[in-house]
Amino acid sequence: MGDWPGARSIELQQQREKYVPRGMSSTMPVFAASGQGATLTDVDGKVYIDFATGISVMNVGHSHPRVIAAIRQQADQLVHSGAPVMMPEAYIRLARRLCEITPGRFPKKALLINSGAEAIENAVKIARQATGRPAVISFHNSFHGRTLMSMTLTGKVNPYRQNFGPWAPEVYQVPYPYEYRRPAGMAAESLGGSCVEAIRQLFKTTVPADRVAGILVEPVQGEGGFVVPPPDFLPGLRKLCTDHQIPLIADEVQTGFGRTGKMFAIEHSGVEPDLIVLAKTLGGGLPLGAVVGRSELMDTTNPGGLGGTFGGNPVACAAALAVIDVVLDEQLPARGIRLGERAMARMRSWFERFSIVGDVRGVGAMIAMELVADRTTREPAGAKTNEILRYCHANGLVLLKAGLYDNVIRLLFPLVISEQDLDRGLDILEEALVAATA
Asked: Is the pTM of this model over 0.70?
């Protein structure tokens, strides 16, 4: 393995400690130099299999030739004009494409901005303007970003909320159906319905339905630990929203663009959201987010109420158009299902072999295992999780944790990864489990 981190990474780490704030942390103590397909290379020349993809950004892999070509071609023509000044042509092409591919059999419009958090902020603005109501409901264990509103909507205190308050008003949270950690005595088959019922109780005890501008939900919780809700949850949530004329907002920032085996995760449920929030893979590595939704909702805001200096940057739009073509042309959602099944089979074998593996779950290529110190009590194995991560990083696998207790190992490999690289990455992870439980 040699010395790790390498000399250049150690030098950069010293500069980082001097010039970069401590709150801007990184999972790994090395620094990226280049990426290709499913691999990253650090500044010391060490090559890693990438099971993180920049937090589900590079679903089409690093340096995909069609995406790079689109970026170069657009950069030669126009880098920036400012959509609020003279909208670039690529903005219109991408907005139309997003309206075509997102779920919903109704007229839609699309707003382009810079990030997932910014998209969340704008979705809330649109919902409030459209309904004339102030309140927004989100879920425990959720993650929606690090701006004021998106932090307020996020259902995990550490590290996201810290002492950054006071929080935005009129935000209310309810339980998300987390089967592995469902309340004692509650049957799994009643969990989804119980979480929907919790919203009805909220309407009676805390905020009336006619004050609620929107309900924001992740079809599969991402940073919360890849929590997949039971099949009745999203349809039940859709019915509740329809009954009370509340816009349903789907946060597909981490789940979108083939990650779960569908273009968008909410398609597994057959539910059509009123607004859908996109980012991460959308930009192919460039900063880009979007809100796509019902035309009648999107059009309620007066001119100048939406937008921003860099939103819909033409280079980012060109990258996004190429990403969408790659995902569809190369049938990456279907490939994600096949790769996910291959990885899931290995992880289930680990459940049988290692008592530290308390749960294996996921959908498509969005899969994870939750590590526990004791399967009976389900006490989180936080220290062992960190030990496993360190082993993987040092041995050439980029890997992330997640979850309310930071004890979930999540897999976010590129959907273009070869079976050979996938298997090698899983081999490293298995070696880490062996070392941690020896």
From this structure: yes
Same domain, yes or no, for 120 and 211?
yes
Task: Name the pairing type of β-strands 400-402 and 408-411.
Answer: antiparallel
CATH code, 215: 3.40.640.10
Q: Residue for token digits 């589900």?
A: 56
Q: How far is CA 83 from CA 278, 308, 312, in A?
A: 19, 8, 7
Q: Would you state the pLDDT for residue 348? A: 98
Q: What is the mean pLDDT of residues 409-426?
A: 98
Query: Tokens 């501008």 belong to which residue?
Result: 213
Residue 294's beta-bridge partner residues? 108
Q: Is the peptide bond before 166 cis (omega within 30 degrees of 0)?
A: yes
- Confidence grade of residue 360 (pLDDT, cut at 50, 70, 90): very high
Q: How does residue 1 score in pLDDT terms, banded at 50, 70 and 90?
A: low
Write the CATH number for 398.
Answer: 3.90.1150.10
Q: In what order do the strands lie in the sheet with 32-36?
A: 32-36, 39-42, 47-50, 397-398
